[in-house]
Amino acid sequence: MPRTISVAALQTSYGEDMQTNIRKTEDLVRQAASRGAQVILPSELFQGPYFCVSQEEKWFGEAYPWREHPCVAAMSPVAAELGVAIPVSIFEREGPHYFNSLVMLDADGRPLGVYRKSHIPDGPGYQEKYYFRPGDTGFKVWDTRFGRVGVGICWDQWYPETARAMMLMGAEVLMYPTAIGSEPHDKELDTADPWRRAMQGHAVSNVVPVVGANRTGTEHATEVGQTFYGSSFIANQRGDLVESLGRDEEGVLVHEFDLDYLDRHRAAWGFFRDRRTDLYGVLTSPRP
Amino acid sequence: MPRTISVAALQTSYGEDMQTNIRKTEDLVRQAASRGAQVILPSELFQGPYFCVSQEEKWFGEAYPWREHPCVAAMSPVAAELGVAIPVSIFEREGPHYFNSLVMLDADGRPLGVYRKSHIPDGPGYQEKYYFRPGDTGFKVWDTRFGRVGVGICWDQWYPETARAMMLMGAEVLMYPTAIGSEPHDKELDTADPWRRAMQGHAVSNVVPVVGANRTGTEHATEVGQTFYGSSFIANQRGDLVESLGRDEEGVLVHEFDLDYLDRHRAAWGFFRDRRTDLYGVLTSPRP
Predict the structure, then answer these.
(1) What are the residue ranges spanned by the domains of chain A?
(2) How many CB pairs under 8 A join A and B?
(3) Could you tell me the pTM of the whole model?
(4) pLDDT exceeds 90 at position A182
(5) In this structure, which of B22, B37, B191, B271 has its CB flanked by the most CB atoms within 10 Å?
(6) CA of A6 to nearest chain B CA: how many angstroms apart?
(7) What distance in Å separates residue A21's CA from the closest CA in chain B?
(8) Within 10 Å of residue B117's Cβ, how many Cβ atoms?
(9) Beta strand extents in chain A (DSSP E only)
(10) pLDDT (tens digit, 9 = 90+) per residue, A277-288?
(11) A271 contacts in B (CB within 8 Å)?
């Protein structure tokens, strides 16, 4: 019997109340599980509105040590009950440090550890450098009950380095929780297509399925407001969007992949066979 | 006045006779130049049929030192006459070594140097490891009269490492001459979409235009035959296919880009600002 994995992306809107957000997420996790999903990806920072739209001190009060974070505490029994793995995106506090982090819950509900977002964006509507210290964990892959899963967080997803690093660490599926939408400073700038294309590119260049989960809806933390463009998807190893949602839809995407086939097929492509690590020095040079 | 660059991709079929192939290429270069193109990209190894479809000793007789290669000798006066830069893909011989190489001719017809394909593929229909020693030049970018251009060769184009390295070396446009088509061992395997997507991904992740030039037509070097799928394109910095050709068309694509705008816009995205070279060690590790 081939080794398969069924992955899911959740897409919904989120508001001010954390308990409501958790309940919404739990409902979608249950929907996904009922359709056979084994690793179920909610979108980024579902604990609240995307507060990074502006710089406000009050939000630091919503960060918690990762083991005690209310979203982790709430999702852990759900993971255990349903027997599914859930990568939980959180605002993490560790002493005086604050991170944009991810806790991977395995199918018994136990956390496998924490990953801290490596690449922190900054720009109008995405003031993340105010809130988050750049991650200090390095990239991580997770040996879940269903396969080895690599998870980057939002801005990480634009970096081919993140995807390649997780693949070199043995990832069999890549996942990216996201919160992205309109650009308050420029109504003409719509990044939905590029957002997908960057990740479709990772799928192709690494011969690996990629799952992107984004929030939807309009939030009014600032006067201008910010509309998140959904467009969550599951891409296969060719970059085909085998499952996808529109900008405003709420729902669940589920797709199964044959990991044994992908393993052979990745080898047959030969990308990893032919890498020239002897020529890649410029990639790691701090001053190329 | 903004600094602009007009780039072109050529798409045609090629046969056994090198002089005919050179003439065909020259005709298309002239068409592109008449439409204002400044850097004009023919497809890979236009000197002959794509001989790598099988392993045959006779083809080693078609390799030449790069300064004396008939394609370089023929294109150099064309570049000078038209005042255009031409990246010329050749089968190169240097003593006992054979390379899949590229000579960049600047707009005065003089060669700026040689790049030797870093990643060499091998698989049914693409027996390149039999012919070519993996390149020893490292990645290169070229200060042409019109801007700094990075050129990878075919298999290089699937590697995010190639694109990123050329960007870190200051490339303002990326180009990839190609010879790719049907997979003789598997009629179901059509790589045209993934081929484009990998490069659209480079465009997005590096905020840079990408030009891909592929040959078209069916060649009969082996019993099965091999059909090249064309699909040449020019992608903008969002990965939009702003110019493209079908599978069987012959012709020329031309597009102009504003390099000053792209320079600012790339900075505003912040991808290069936020790279974590401290976390990328696995990318260059020979045994990760």
Answers:
(1) 4-283
(2) 158
(3) 0.97
(4) no
(5) B37
(6) 23
(7) 30
(8) 26
(9) 4-11, 39-41, 86-94, 97-105, 111-116, 141-144, 147-151, 173-178, 210-214, 216-219, 226-229, 233-235, 241-244, 251-258
(10) 999 999 999 877
(11) 158-159
Minimum Cα–Cα distance from A126: chain B residue? B269
Pick the residue from chain A with its C-alpha nearest to B158.
A205
pLDDT (tens digit per residue) in A129-143: 999 999 999 999 999
Q: Which architecture does CATH list for B4-283?
A: 4-Layer Sandwich (3.60)
Q: How many CB atoms sit inside 10 A of residue B56's CB?
A: 14
- Separation CA A119–CA A160 (nearest Å): 12
Which residue in chain A has the smallest CA separation from B282? A165
pLDDT at B1: 80
**Residue A14: its pLDDT value, please?**
97
CB-based contact, A240 to chain B, within 8 Å: yes
In chain A, residues with a C-beta closer than 8 Å to the C-beta of B123 are: 268, 270
Q: What is the mean pLDDT of residues A148-152?
A: 98
pLDDT of residue B179: 97
Q: In a 3-state reduction of DSSP, which class is residue A234?
A: strand
Q: In this predicted structure, what is the pLDDT of residue A2?
A: 84
Looking at residue B39, its pLDDT comes to: 98
Which residues of B are designated catalytic?
44, 117, 154
Residues of chain B with pLDDT under 70: none
Confidence category of residue A115, pLDDT binned at 50, 70, 90: very high
Residue A44 annotated among the catalytic residues of the structure: yes
Q: Is the pLDDT of residue A224 over 80?
A: no
Q: Are B24 and B14 in contact (CB under 8 A)?
A: yes
Distance (Å) from the alpha carbon of A198 to chain B's nearest alpha carbon? 4
Q: How far apart are CA B66 and CA B102, in angstroms?
A: 8
pLDDT at B224: 73
Burial (CB count within 10 angstroms: exposed 0-12, middle 13-18, buried 19+), residue A223: exposed
Q: Is the pLDDT of residue A222 over 80?
A: no
Q: Where are the alpha helices (DSSP H) in chain A?
A: 18-34, 70-82, 128-131, 160-168, 192-206, 259-269, 281-284
Q: Give the closest-approach CA distance of B242 to chain A in angstroms.
A: 14
pLDDT band with cut points at 50, 70 and 90 for residue A183:
confident
Which residues, in sequence order, are CB contacts of A125 under 8 Å at separation 6+? A53, A182, A183, A184, A185, A226
A58 is catalytic: no
Residue A81's pLDDT band (boundaries 50, 70, 90)?
very high
Closest listed residue to residue A54, CA positions, set A225, A227, A182, A216: A225
Interface contact A279, partner B, CB < 8 A: yes
> What pLDDT, on a 0 to 100 scale, did the predictor assign at position B182?
86
Q: B177 to each of A64, A89, B133, B194, how far by Cα in Å?
A: 52, 42, 18, 16
Tell me if chain B has a CB within 8 Å of the CB of A274: yes
Instruction: Using an 8 Å CB-CB cutoff, list chain B residues near A168.
Output: 282-283, 285, 288
